[in-house]
Give the backbone structure.
Amino acid sequence: MQDYNYVWANCFEITLELSCCKYPPASQLRQEWENNRESLITLIEKVHIGIKGFVKDSVTGAGLENATISVAGINHNITTGRFGDFHRLLIPGIYNLTAVSTGYAPLTINNIMVKEGPATETDFSLRPTVTSVIPDSTETVSTPGTVAIPNIPPGTSSSHQPIQPKDFHHHHFPDMEIFLRRFANEYPNITRLYSLGKSVESRELYVMEISDNPGVHEPGEPEFKYIGNMHGNEVVGRELLLNLIEYLCKNFGTDPEVTDLVRSTRIHLMPSMNPDGYEKSQEGDSISVVGRNNSNNFDLNRNFPDQFVPITDPTQPETIAVMSWVKAYPFVLSANLHGGSLVVNYPFDDNEQGVATYSKSPDDAVFQQIALSYSKNIRETSTSGYNPVTKNVTVRSEGAIQVNFTLVRSSTDANNESEKGKGESASTDDASDPTTKEFEALIKHLSAENGLEGFMLSSSSDLALYRYHSYKDLSEFLRGLVMNYPHITNLTTLGQSAEYRHIWSLEISNKPNISEPEEPKIRFVAGIHGNAPVGTELLLALAEFLCLNYKKNPVVTQLVDRTRIVIVPSLNPDGRERAQEKECTSKTGQTNARGKDLDTDFT
């Protein structure tokens, strides 16, 4: 994928393999964060090196989109963004840059000095061509170059200690979804949660944007992306990006480095490109390939177009989503987080013969510096199962460099009872429209029970009613709520079904572990018929909604403070596992595993 970003987009991408164990025990995740924290931040800061500026019409001053920026001696061009802005990553040196745009006379600026640190600012003002006048040569000017006012201040003072993440456990998809929605809800001024589409198994491909102006490309501000969990069984990157989201959000406004980074950079974090594969992988797996590929059994890292070798495998939904993403946003720098070894890879992956060997890109020196910036900031020792790494730099026969990490240019991986919905097991495509109104009715019911009025459901709530939850997903979802909102939730089991599945009961209250006999209780029960699961999905959405809005929405806060809300989302989990989506009239799954209709089985 790194070659695709470099060849077909403006984005320089490297691949980071962060741990020898692909799926280490959860107890090691805190150490992984400590090992990689500084490197993750430093790499984002590298988006500001080189030369940046605008290409404008000399007459109107308007920015020129898709103008070509070329560097003498480097056979790799980039193009300007919609405002005429560009960021060209370069190592320190003196460069000659040329800007070319259709309908304008080309302009070359010579002797632009690039220094260590923030990018040199260089603007191009192109003269429109007149039909009768065709310039014979490129207009050329010389400039010593002007270094921009630094956007990134020196490192934080030793007296300041940034807030560190506290959430160190493996996040299955429902838990990850709750985590992302929680931080998007708690930090709306600097975050935007969006999806690139869906995986083969219809899981959302989430991205968290972190910026001081989320949702907007600001002229002159570079865009950076991290992608994690492309191989489903390589999970450290997934967890590190969730840690990074927490770290950036909690430290914005108090930590100078984080604050400046968020103000000067538009950051996009994709924790999992392969959520389906992740759900198949197993904790503690060091070397196997279970969960590596997507649900269609394709390696997503080998599914992108290659400049040398045609790709014959069908392009996967996850691949299509990321390719569209790369084309839609003007990314300057990117990193793809893998696991299974300690390696930094960068273009190219192969040569014209399709051989995985040392194959220099035109920007080989830039990629080396970017890769070294990550490796030099990695912690040298760890208790995560890998050995301390060398400081010295040695050049091996294949052109690799060893410095903290092994830097290689080419690699192969080692690697209240209600009947909801018109049909019983309706399609998830139909789950949003009717359930949204029913969800509002649930909230209004709760409000009326407690004498509360004036509630309005915001359209920005973005209820996750896009797919049905299997028993495993439902269990993970409920555990995720408790992990993220322990102060207002308590999860217990009422017992087990005939097939030994837990019948979960979630209590939501301001004092969930303290008995308050004087406080009224209200109970919601769904899923008594396994083939009628819409009620189950509504109650999961209700639980999440109450958690997300506690202490934010006054009506929800009063509900939770005054009431003990008990939610039993699935009374018949065995039947639910047998029911089939879109089977609106089928009786399969209506009864429990012993053929009992639970609705008529009470005495």
In short: The radius of gyration is 27 Å. Residues 432-449 form the longest helix (18 residues). Confidence is low (pLDDT under 50) at residues 131-158, 380-435, 447-463. DSSP finds 13 helices and 24 strands in the chain.
